[in-house]
Design brief:
64 residues; 9% strand; Virus_scaffolding_prot_C; IDEAL domain-containing protein; IDEAL_dom; two-stranded antiparallel ribbon
């Protein structure tokens, strides 16, 4: 019985946007946003490095 209540609560949380299921893993939208921000910061850092090293090919890959 507890298992069915837990499944219903999780389904409701997903439906209401409080949780997101990615590949069978439950994540909060805040966690997903944080990961996206970190990825963007890393991309910006790589762009800066490509510019500093005159690496046009890498720059073009990162900005397309």
């Amino acid at each position: 019985m507890f298992d069915s209540i837990l499944k219903a609560a999780i389904a409701l949380a997903i439906q209401e946007g409080l949780l997101v299921e990615e590949d069978g893993v439950l994540l909060s939208p805040t966690t997903i946003n944080l990961v996206n921000e970190i990825q963007e910061m890393n991309r910006q850092h790589l762009i800066d490095m490509a510019l500093a090293n005159n690496d046009r090919e890498l720059f073009m890959q990162l900005t397309n």
